[in-house]
Write a structure and sequence with these properties.
Belongs to the Wnt family. The chain has 300 residues and is of the alpha/beta class. The chain is built from nine helices and six strands. The structure holds 2-acetamido-2-deoxy-beta-D-glucopyranose.
């Protein structure tokens, strides 16, 4: 082992620690698919996962391709929602895929965490409904005759399974930190708010049966909203996000609005700690942010 090798290894380790970020699993979107043949090897070779996510992967390798699709869904929806803005959610080939903006506790990071947590819950739930997974299927708890008199039938989306998977996979890094830092609290809050954007917009879809659609019998099932709807809801929460700070209440730490005149945020609102960088200044140290330096402003 040469000295150069040791130095190089140390440097790589340092860079890895430096870029460690709770949203690095989004890097899965860069893969064209996640094979599910050899669990151990597949999980070890996925970039961007922390050790505990690798363990979850090994336990449920069949779910990982849905997680990858979720990561892609999050990136696509982010780019759609921010298509006309200075920060437009463009991704990098490196981690974190959204660049430095998400390493700070900004409003943009709040959006990225919320949409990512939601997208995993969504994609896994979809996979359950489509029958591609052994571990889950349609929600069997929804059955019988409803209070409105229609028959529950068909495949109700098993959102509880998707949400639980998202909680264990996406939140794992924050939970392993013991929820102590204000940034961990912020991420956990926004992850949960993202999942709520699906949960509070579940809908009932129905089909009529009978002579020429006379609807003598109506069968219905519970369905998730389209992901575009989820994106719209989270974007609205981004626009109205609350700036918070950490405070100790008894022995627990909580996030409270920085401006005490503001009403407290709800479980469905987004929260952030740090002001956003000025996206107009081109900062070469902030990869992923395309500034407008060099733009000539004509003054009349
Ligand atoms: C973001 O904006 C830049 C500059 O206008 C553009 O080059 C880039 O393609 C945009 N990215 C996305 C994902 O829309």
């Amino acid at each position: 082992m040469t000295a150069e090798y040791v130095l190089r290894s140390l440097l790589m380790l340092f860079l890895a620690l430096l870029s460690a970020n709770a949203s690095n699993w989004l890097y899965l979107a860069k893969l064209s698919s996640v094979g599910s043949i050899s669990d151990e090897e597949t999980c070890e070779r996925l970039r961007g996962l922390i050790q505990r996510q690798v363990q979850i992967c090994k336990r449920s390798v069949e779910v990982m391709d849905a997680v990858r699709r979720g990561a892609q869904l999050a990136i696509d929806e982010c780019q759609f929602q921010f298509r006309n803005r200075r920060w437009n959610c463009s991704t990098l080939e490196t981690m974190p895929v959204f660049g430095k903006v998400v390493t700070q506790g900004t409003r943009e990071a709040a959006f990225v965490y919320a949409i990512s947590a939601a997208s995993v819950a969504f994609a896994v739930t979809r996979a359950c409904s489509s029958g591609e997974l052994e571990k889950c299927g349609c929600d069997r708890n929804v059955h019988g005759v409803s209070s409105e008199g229609f028959q529950w039938s068909g495949c109700s989306d098993n959102i509880a399974y998707g949400v639980a998977f998202s909680q264990s996979f996406v939140d794992v890094r924050e939970r392993s930190k013991g929820q102590s830092s204000s940034r961990a609290l912020m991420n956990l809050h926004n992850n949960e708010a993202g999942r709520k954007a699906i949960l509070s917009h579940m809908r009932v879809e129905c089909k009529c049966h009978g002579v020429s659609g006379s609807c003598e019998v109506k069968t219905c099932w519970k369905a998730m909203p389209p992901f575009r709807k989820v994106g719209n809801v989270i974007k609205e929460k981004f626009d109205g996000a609350t700036e918070v700070e950490q405070r100790k209440v008894g022995t627990t730490k909580v996030l409270v609005p920085r401006n005490s005149q503001f009403k407290p945020h709800t479980d469905e609102d987004l929260v952030y700690l740090d002001p956003s960088p000025d996206f107009c200044d081109h900062d070469p140290r902030t990869p992923g942010v395309l500034g407008t330096a060099g733009l000539i402003v004509a003054t009349v």
